[in-house]
Specification:
Layout lengths: L2 H15 L2 H14 L4 H30 L2 H27 L12 E4 L1 H4 L9 E7 L5 H16 L4 E7 H10 L1 H8 L2 E5 L1 H16 L3 H19 L17 H15 L6 H4 L5 H25 L8 H10 L10 H30 L21 E3 L2 E4 L2 E4 L4 H4 L3 H12 L2 E2 L1 H9 L6 H4 L2 H11 L5 H11 L1 H5 L1 H4 L15 H16 L8 H6 L6 H10 L10 H16 L3 H12 L3 H8 L5 H11 L2 H16 L8 H19 L7 H15 L5 H8 L4 H6 L2 H17 L4 E7 L4 E9 L4 H11 L4 E8 L4 E9 L5 H19 L5 H13 L10 E5 L7 E8 L4 H11 L2 E11 L2 E10 L8 H28 L1
Parallel strand pairs: 2-3, 7-8
Antiparallel strand pairs: 1-2, 1-4, 5-6, 6-7, 9-10, 10-12, 11-12, 11-15, 13-14, 14-16, 15-16
């Protein structure tokens, strides 16, 4: 549908939503009926406005659900508001304040500005108005403006308004870019048309003329600031439809600049002036229509001006827009993939505009694009085969560069990386128009694959170059399996970016490690990268590790299969191919083992060593795991995960290289005791021997030397004071945790009580080590996530939690009620995600303990409920390992029965599964009840 036809239809539909003349007649009837009773009259007018808006919006929503026409819906809603305002203006000027002998100053024009000025509104949009005067304000004009505004305010509308003369509009527009933009978008609604015409004439002549470069630069700088606040990536999984990158505001900015610089009044004119091709104009309309459909649905569903596409709304929007499930992709994931593709298209349109402005020299060239560099004095372009270098940007020598040799579509990016050049917008535009040249023949071309592998393994900036290729559409065409995951989101709280963005960021982090940066976060990886024998396999494996996401089967297995097919094409040897495939197949293993297994249990290390098999693979897997975790999103990587991975690495490396015999438990215990004795020179031999006898052999095998020293001094001090209950807190800024040490008489519910006290204090337990002494005490080390960056603040919080633990253990507080109160508000909210509860009870993961793995939807108090269930089953918890992956909690408990033996009875194992599943499902029942109430 053409823009003109669409506007005519929108105007016709708007009249059906609300007829301005009929509404004005209603107001006149109310005014005649309620003469002398101003308050009642006002209330009835407000009620009639509310009724008209509610009825019109309900019909507009019904039409949107039927035709899914987003832009048409926005125009209908704008027309609805136009009708209400015109009726109100007639009411104010004819029923309330009629002019008998109007002076030249008693003239008033009402104009729509801002988004409303463009003739498009969402259900919850602000109503931005400009009351335009010929000269200064008069008593009559003030009365009319107030009468209209009070009705709009009392009807519940958010109104942005200004009352200005034509002179003031011109003067303020010169000084303030925001006001200038609002006036640029002004649209006549009602009142004196001559005033509006004069304002626009003077605005064009006195403000716009000669200031195109200034306006364009200011708007693009404003866009950068906005995106810096809302999230610079267009691939954030909870995007802002209005303000986010690739959202409606970007389209608005694009048209503001075009309208100001080229003096056009309709987007259709951009084709005539050569800014857009017909296909690009069609793309503009397609993006605009989709984004408006999403935004209108958001407002309709939430009943408020909500522009963030949050997880709890995404599926509802997907259903409203008619998306369905496909194998491997849920309806919501298909919808969000479409959203991100549209956001990318908006970025492409913005780049086209920037290039056109550069050619026109409407703005400083250094601001055209974040990839462009400041121009130097003009010199003869340098030739690079079919390309030339102009002002440090790579351009094509002629428009046939890619048609003449399709390999140039890859060479273009390789040369840019090799020479550190920015890309010329004209060349990038030609690339996007030449994508059809990337066919099976080019994909199999040895030179093209060699160039691509050089880009992927570059020591300069492979992330930047690969992202350029992805933005231009080349990457997905050259590697079709990559094309399938472009703009694909994963509907969970763990991943912050789309799959393709995650893969590109992981390559960037690998480059960061190779450059020796951020060594304070992952020192071992920075050390190992220098001795890795084959960096190529690491780059290729990272690039492909999630490439099979969105398929019905396990993406690790499917990804390994893709690697075995693709790596030979890229020129990798059979051995390299097998290593890449192995890394992809096992890319989650190290993270899972480190975060959810007892690393002091020799069976854990032995089993992991069997998987890894060689020190070289162990190095590669460690580096890949770190890059993968860090690329998930901000805040996902922390020092605690780093420490767990380092511990797993060193223990496994030791097992693989034969540095220590795993089965030699007795010598290891003796070595640990000697090491502790040497660290306590101020102790007598008798005191040390008495202390050492308090610990069973497993303690010496599990506790690292530094912590063993801290435990010894802590227990000695407690004994001097005669305490049977003591706590100690310490911070660890590097690992991002706070350690809470508890000494208390041993009993099965001890960890449950500690977990409850931590939950009541809002602390997130990340790990728990439970040690039982020979004299009947428990020495528990609880690691909780830090809440404050400063140690003083964190220690105060930790001491409060420790005090709660002590009071709970002495019975001074009733923990159950406190935890229930803490999580009560959480239980009352429906959740966007579902995690099917799973409980695994196995004796295969440890030689000495039964291991319970509980997987479910994370929620406050979950660990408390699980440990309570375990204590009621008369099981001793030896260690607990808590991992959360977004909304998914994976809690692993190493337990024994009360005699210290494994749980071998099948019947009892089934009982454990049943009780633990019930604890996990308790949160699901609360969530379903909340959803039903909602």
């Amino acid at each position: 549908m053409s823009t003109v036809r669409q506007r005519l239809r929108a105007a016709r539909d708007a009249r059906e939503l609300c007829d301005a003349k009929a509404l004005a007649a209603d107001f006149a009837a109310i005014a005649a009926k309620r003469k002398g009773d101003g308050q009642t009259r006002h209330n009835e007018v407000v009620a009639r406005v509310k009724e008209a808006l509610a009825s019109g919006r309900a019909t507009a929503r019904k039409w949107l659900e039927e035709d899914a026409a987003g832009m048409l819906c926005a125009q209908r809603l704008s027309g609805l508001m136009d009708a209400v305002l015109r009726a109100l203006f007639a009411h104010a000027t004819e029923d309330l304040y009629p002019r008998q002998n109007p002076s030249s100053g008693e003239r008033l024009c009402v104009a729509a500005v801002g988004g409303y000025g463009r003739g498009a509104m969402a259900p919850g949009s602000d109503v931005d108005l400009l009351f335009l005067l010929p000269y200064k304000q008069t008593a009559w004009g003030e009365s009319v403006v107030e009468a209209m505004l009070y009705v709009l305010w009392d009807a519940g509308l958010k109104v942005g308004h200004a009352t200005r003369s034509v002179d003031e509009c011109v003067r303020l527009s010169r000084a303030d870019m925001t006001i200038r933009t609002a006036v640029l978008e002004a649209r006549y609604l009602c009142g004196d048309e001559e005033i509006f015409a004069e304002k626009m004439r003077r605005f064009d002549a006195e403000v716009v003329e000669g200031t195109g470069a200034e306006f364009a630069a200011a708007k693009l700088a404003e866009r950068d600031d906005r995106l810096g606040k809302s999230g610079a990536s267009r691939y954030l999984v909870e995007p802002n439809v209005k303000e986010g990158k690739g959202g409606l505001r970007d389209l608005n900015t694009l048209f503001w600049i075009a309208k100001y610089v080229y003096r056009v009044h309709d987007v259709e004119e951009l084709v005539g002036i050569g800014l857009f091709s017909a296909a690009e104009l069609k793309l503009f309309h397609k993006c605009e229509d989709f984004l408006w459909a999403v935004r209108c649905h958001l407002h309709f569903i939430t009943g408020r001006p909500e522009d963030r596409l949050s997880f709890d709304l995404q599926r509802e929007i997907a259903i409203a827009l008619g998306y369905t499930e496909h194998p491997g992709l849920r309806d919501v994931e298909r919808f969000m993939k479409h959203y991100f593709l549209v956001a990318k298209d908006v970025g492409d349109l913005t780049a086209i505009l920037c290039y056109a402005l550069e050619e026109r020299e409407a703005k400083p060239k250094a601001r055209l694009d974040r990839f462009l560099t400041r121009l130097k004095p003009r010199r003869k372009p340098k030739a690079l085969g079919d390309f030339i270098v102009e002002h440090e940007r790579l351009n094509v020598a002629d428009d046939q560069a890619f048609a003449r040799d399709p390999v140039n579509l890859i060479r273009f990016f390789q040369l840019a990386d090799a020479h550190g050049l920015a890309l010329h917008p004209a060349a990038v535009r030609l690339v996007t128009r030449s994508l059809k040249l990337i066919d099976g023949e080019l994909r199999d071309d040895a030179e093209a694959n060699r160039l691509f592998l050089e880009i992927l393994t570059s020591r300069r900036s492979p992330e930047v170059t690969l992202r350029r290729m992805n933005e231009a559409g080349v990457l997905g065409r050259f590697i079709p399996d990559f094309g399938k995951i472009v703009a694909m989101m994963q509907f969970n709280m763990y991943h912050h970016y789309t799959v393709d963005e995650h893969l590109l960021r992981s390559i960037g982090i690998l480059s960061e490690i190779e450059r020796g940066e951020a060594g304070d976060q992952h020192p071992l990886a920075n050390e190992l990268i220098a001795v890795v024998r084959d960096r190529v396999v690491l780059h290729v494996a990272l690039f492909l590790h999630d490439i099979a996401k969105g398929r019905p089967e396990d993406h690790s297995v499917a990804g390994a299969r893709i690697a075995r097919r693709l790596c030979p094409r890229l020129g990798l040897s059979a051995a390299q191919t097998e290593t890449v495939a192995w890394l992809i197949e096992q890319h989650l293993t190290m993270s899972i083992v480190a975060q959810s297994r007892d690393l002091s249990d020799r069976r854990t290390i032995a089993d992991f060593a069997k998987i890894v098999q060689s020190p070289e693979r162990l190095k590669l897997l460690l580096i890949l795991t770190i890059c993968d975790i860090k690329a998930v999103g901000p805040g996902v990587w922390n020092g605690w995960k780093g420490q767990l991975l380092r511990t797993l690495y060193w223990e496994t490396d030791n097992a693989l290289t034969g540095g220590r015999e795993i089965g030699d438990r007795k010598s290891q215990v003796e070595e640990a005791r000697r090491e502790l004795r040497a660290a306590l020179p101020d102790w007598t031999d008798e005191a040390f021997e008495a202390y050492a006898q308090r610990h069973y052999p497993p303690y010496w095998l599990r506790v690292e030397p530094q912590r063993a020293v801290a435990h010894a001094r802590f227990l000695k001090e407690a004994c001097v004071d005669g305490c049977k209950l003591a706590t100690e807190v310490k911070t660890d800024a590097f690992r991002g945790v706070t350690e809470l040490t508890v000494l208390a008489p041993d009993h099965p519910r001890l960890l449950s009580i500690i977990a409850g006290a931590c939950a009541a204090g809002g602390a997130n337990i990340m790990d728990a080590h439970i040690h039982t002494t020979t004299d009947g005490f428990a020495l528990d080390s609880i690691f909780i996530g830090r809440a404050f960056p400063q140690d003083e603040d964190e220690l105060r919080r930790a001491r409060r939690i420790a005090e709660s633990v002590e009071r709970a253990l002495t019975g001074d507080i009733w923990l159950f009620d406190i935890v229930e109160q803490k999580v009560k508000g959480h239980k009352g909210r429906p959740r966007a995600f579902q995690v099917t509860p799973e409980v695994n009870v196995t004796n295969a993961w440890s030689d000495r303990h039964t291991v319970i793995e509980a997987v479910g939807l994370d929620r406050p108090g979950l660990l408390y409920e699980l440990t309570t269930a375990i204590s009621k089953l008369n099981l001793n918890i030896v260690s607990a390992h808590v991992a959360t992956f977004g909304e998914r909690a994976v809690d692993v408990f190493y337990v024994t029965d009360l005699t210290g033996a494994k749980v071998s009875s099948t019947a009892r194992q089934n009982t454990i599964r049943r009780h633990m599943t019930a604890a996990l499902e308790a949160g699901d029942r609360d969530r379903h009840k909340a959803k039903e109430r909602a």
